[in-house]
Design brief:
The complex is a heterodimer of chains A (185) and B (424). In chain A, 28% of the residues lie in helices and 22% in strands. By secondary structure, chain A is an alpha/beta fold. The termini of chain A are far apart. Chain B is mostly helical and 424 residues long. Chain B contains 18 helices and eight strands. The two termini of chain B are 17 Å apart. Classes of the chains: A alpha/beta (185), B mainly alpha (424). At the A-B interface, strand 3, strand 4 and helix 5 of A face helix 2, strand 6, strand 7, strand 8 and helix 15 of B.
Chain lengths: 185, 424
């Protein structure tokens, strides 16, 4: 699943030249993020190619910068945020949470997934509503169901569940039938 | 249904200037605004309002009859489907997808099934692909017919509803003939189809096809030239192409704003790249444009169905993967290994390789994306649906700014939302 991820860690000029033929074989989105990583090595920690989809793992604090760069990048033009969803890897897993951003280009028609991994003791991610306004409801949903806090979100409140709901329903430690019968007040 | 508080208290309207001036000094933090009615009012529209198509509640801040702010309040139909997926085997998840966008269940089946097939790396036989296209396009027509009937009904044209449901009934009968279910077909399975089409199905589809174009002309006669309908829809709920992309609109809503984007063309699946059809585009970005796009789309779907009918050749409809696809009933009765496979698939399910995929399809309402993450077991670790209705509805506040209350009804109708998919 993590093909080529190890090589990306040690990119310098000499390795990059050797890797050039390989880059052509990669799909365009992963070529774009590889170029972005070369420019800003600390923005992307890992690039994963699996099932014909490209995934870039982005550190929590750089997500807005990466999204802005990808949106306005002339070659990539990822101007469309198709989806944003949270994942709970499991109670014992560390880091426990993921936030997946599915980017799409309305002109180039290619797709890219950005992934932010979060530890349970710090579930804060900067919001990307400033980059795409459609992120608003997606982030509210992720906050509602996973308890992931999107910092500086304009309107971060529950969207699917009632405001007085206890817990976050899609976390793995939340029982399928809830803690107790939910009473409507 | 019980009210629940949403966020901070709604903004209180500006102060009544004349009354205030005569009695007290106005504190500096209040702004004095001259408005025809001198006040704003917050009203709650829905969740039981018929034009909200289910259980959508809108909190409208009104200035007279003009909408200052519309805030959708959703979640009344939340049934925890994404949670439920994590407790069900992969093949059991298909029946849950039926219940999301209940006007387009085959599209939901397809998106989910294809995402799992992508993880499994299954090769689907040609006949199954053609039948998938055929059924999905019929379903798209049926979905658009419900939209057209209810949209026109909301605006006040009642007759259209009956004509639309007459045609939709024919499609539902076809779906019932193929799968046994009308609204919850679960016809597509991981690795192919539930079973092959019944004998004489092509003839019945052809019968529907022969009459359908005439019906579309009837709809046009009833609505397109109708002055009232035009006045109610033109220049209402406008959204520019740039804003539409920014708000993540997809499907006919996006194409009504002049963006040429159709997942069937952009990221083709089930062989859509080999079909000859047009992607209708309108540039006005208003309710009227979205109406025209869907009307033309029905004709394009009709074209695709005709092509798919011509491509139906005998052949298998299930992939050659005995550990994933249920064996034929007859084989199960005669062969020991088929019986064992059947037992194992039903009792224990099948393991799906670890990994994650996002598979988008063009559902009748826009891009329906399915995110499936597997840890390697028979149950998914996470299934997430990017519902087109969910995202399209999130742009409603933007579209309805400055509209009249009656326009809200037209705008909601033009978004073609299904609350089952929004709340999941």
């Amino acid at each position: 699943m993590t093909t080529g991820a190890g090589d990306e860690q040690i990119v310098d000029n000499s390795v990059a030249e050797q890797a050039a033929p390989d880059l052509d074989q990669l799909s365009t989105p992963s070529r774009l993020v590889t170029a972005l990583k070369r420019e800003h090595p600390h923005w992307i920690t890992e690039i994963i190619e699996a099932f014909g989809e490209a995934t870039a793992v982005v550190p929590r604090l750089h997500i807005v910068e990466v999204c802005t760069a990808l949106k306005f990048d002339v070659e990539g033009k990822f101007d469309f945020l198709a989806d944003l969803c949270g994942v709970d890897r499991g109670v014992e897993e560390e880091p426990r949470f993921e936030v997946n951003y599915h980017l799409f280009s309305t002109t180039r028609h290619h797709r890219l997934r950005l992934k932010v991994v979060l530890h349970e003791n710090n579930v804060h991610v900067p919001t990307v509503t400033g980059v795409w306004r459609t992120a608003n409801w997606h982030e509210r949903e992720t906050f509602d169901l996973f308890g992931i806090v999107f910092d500086e979100h304009p309107d971060l409140r529950r969207i699917l569940l009632p405001d007085d709901w206890q817990g976050h329903a899609l976390r793995k430690d939340f029982p399928l039938r809830g803690y107790e019968p939910y009473s409507l007040k | 249904m019980v009210w629940r508080p949403i966020g901070p208290v709604s903004p209180i309207g500006p102060i009544n200037k004349k009354r205030l001036m005569s009695t007290i000094n106005i504190p500096p933090q209040f702004e004095i605004v001259d408005r025809p009615l001198d006040t704003q009012m917050t009203i709650s529209m829905g969740p039981q309002h018929p034009s909200t198509h289910g259980v959508l509640r809108l909190e409208l801040v009104l200035d007279g009859e003009m909408v200052v702010k519309a805030t959708p309040d959703i979640g009344y139909l939340h049934t925890g489907m994404e949670k439920l997926f994590e407790y069900k085997k992969y093949q059991q998840g298909i029946v849950i997808t039926d219940r999301m966008d209940y006007l387009n269940p085959l599209g939901n089946n397809l998106a989910y099934v294809m995402a799992v097939e992508k993880l499994l790396g299954l090769e689907i036989p040609e006949r199954a692909l053609v039948i998938r296209v055929l059924m999905c396009e019929l379903q798209r027509i049926a979905s658009h017919l419900v939209w057209l009937g209810t949209h026109a009904l909301d605006i006040g044209a009642m007759t259209v509803f009956f004509y639309c449901f007459r045609e939709r009934e024919k499609i539902l009968n076809l779906i019932e003939a193929a799968s046994g279910g009308r609204l919850t077909p679960s016809y597509f399975r991981i690795g192919g189809l539930m079973m092959d089409l019944p004998p004489g199905f092509e003839r019945r589809v052809q019968q529907f096809q022969d009459g359908f174009l005439k019906s579309v002309e009837e709809f046009h006669t009833l609505l397109t030239g109708n002055r009232i309908f035009q006045k109610r829809t033109q220049n209402v709920g406008r959204i520019s192409a740039k804003d539409a992309i920014d708000w993540g609109l997809s499907g006919p809503c996006l194409r009504g704003s002049g963006v040429n984007l159709d997942v069937r063309r952009a990221n083709p699946y089930t062989g859509y790249e080999t079909y000859d059809f047009e992607v209708p585009i309108e540039h006005d970005g208003d309710v009227w444009a979205r109406y025209l796009v869907r009307m033309r789309e029905m004709k394009e779907s009709h074209k695709i169905v005709a092509q798919a009918l011509g491509r139906l050749k005998p052949g298998p409809v299930k992939a050659d993967a005995p550990k994933v696809v249920l064996p034929d009933r007859e084989a199960m009765k005669k062969h020991m290994d088929a019986l064992i496979h059947h037992f194992l698939i039903v009792a224990e399910g099948f393991d799906v390789p670890a990994g994650e995929v996002y598979h988008p399809i063009e559902a009748s309402k826009g891009e329906l994306g399915v995110y499936v993450k597997s840890d390697g077991g028979p149950k998914p670790a996470r299934v997430h649906f990017r519902g087109p209705s969910f995202v399209n509805l999130s742009a409603l506040p933007h579209m309805s700014e400055g509209a009249m209350v009656a326009d809200i009804v037209a705008i909601i109708g033009s978004l073609d939302i299904v609350l089952g998919e929004i709340d999941r």
